[in-house]
Request: fold
Amino acid sequence: MHLESLRREDVMELADSAQIFHQGEEDRESGAIYQCSVSPSGILAKVRDKQGDWTVAIDNSTETLEMDCDCPYKGYVCQHMVAVLLLYIEGGDEKIEPLEPDANTPEALKQTVSAMSHQQLVELVLGLAEEREEVMRALLAAVEVPSEIIQQQPQNLQKVTQIKGEIGLFFEKLPELAQGEAGSEWEQILAVTKLLNPSDQLEVLGYGIAYGNETVGDFPDIGPKIEQAIAHFATAAVLLSPHQEEKREYLNALIACLDWPMCRYPHIADAVKNALETICTVPADYRYLISYLASSKRPEAAELIPRYYLILGDDANYLRYRQENLDTEAEYLELAEYWKQKGNQGKYLETLEAWILHLLRQEQELGAGLSWFYPTAALERLGILPFLVQPYQTQLNEQNLYRILLALAEQKPVTLELYQQIETLATRSGKWPKLQQILLERGAENPQELAKIHMSEENWTAAIQLAKSHLDSPAIAIMVAESMRLKNPQGAILIYQELVQGYIDQKSRDKYRAAADCALAMKSIYLDILQDRETWQQYIDSLGSRYQNRRALKEEFQALLV
Reply:
């Protein structure tokens, strides 16, 4: 999961409990977030509540979101993280006006530092950086050393040996390091490495990449760290070898890396391909790669050669090569996108149709029973689907269209996206009722997606029935209840009541706590949405009288009585 695809329902599931989620909502709505910085790599925010000021960091560069908050909460996802995620979803970070920072620097210190000479300040900063690691890290992060200075640095075998030792130690103790701690140590190693002579950088980074290649199979989470090292390797290669002939050694080395086990992870393979383009600073570099890939018959050739032709602006050779190497879905879609960018709608549709006909021919050759050969991504994109219903005079008639949609409905995992896309096409051709029935029946295999389908259509009866039949999976029931709390608050209350009762019946402290979280969500609906304190009070009083002898339950529910 990444920030770009995050939804409110995802935040509900990430939150440690319904109570934490609602506390995060309150923090978001009360303006507790007073600083927020968003970038492609993540979010850094400041949140202020009655207990103090807290820093929330969300890393978006890994396979899954990594989140951290320095508040004392002992769980995984606290209310402050929830508040920041909700703010991001709402796109409200630009509206935040940072509070004036507290004047924590004593006036006497300001006056003393202001009076120091340039040399004294330099000695002070460098001295602190030598003595305190956190100062060194802050300095390395804040100062961008010019490439001219990097190139002037002498080679330092002793420093290279030291950093390689630190890399080896890092990978050896990786099983003991927490995710955040590992990231911090690796950042420090890379920051120091980037200050070396480019030749030394290449030796250190090459060592780190090779070590990572041996380790990533056991620790896939280090993938982003290997990607960082690969990117820095390419930058150092450009600094060291600005001329094309000298760069070939590093281009060849990176292409060889594509055979390493680490490149079985797509993000690492992509990092290597990006590094190749970093090193290619002139057209001759790309022409060398095209020649090398073509002669070596590497499997990446069909992907990279046409891309390099496009970068060079050589449309004629791009079209020649792509037409000669046109077999997979990705290749058809790439060619279709080329025509779309050129504004040639006819060629765009013609290419997409050719892909569908290609698959239909495969079906005829391999047997009608192999319906899983029907399109996947090509038919799952709303930008591509509509052309199928155009009145083309080809084999792709209405009957073929229905067969394709039927195969998708019967074979593909049912998701809300697939459901809506098939509905779009099937409704136009009058085939939707039959396909809808198939999708809803198969949706039972994935109740979470089925719940989303019911909620998108505001079929509250079906959604409530589904939630009540999956009370053993509270995440589904809570997702349904939260999604309907505004449009169908009584339905949401009904689900929460079932959850509360189910938790109470299990008679344990942690289940009582979960019951209290759900009851708190109900309280919010009664008081904030329905404005019905009386009915809420009757409900909570009824629980109190029925379970008056359960002390642990009463303790967990005590906060709800306020």
The two ends are 37 Å apart (CA to CA). The first helix runs from residue 8 to 14. The beta strands are 33-39, 42-49, 52-59, 66-69. The chain has four domains: 3-95, 151-335, 345-445, 451-561.
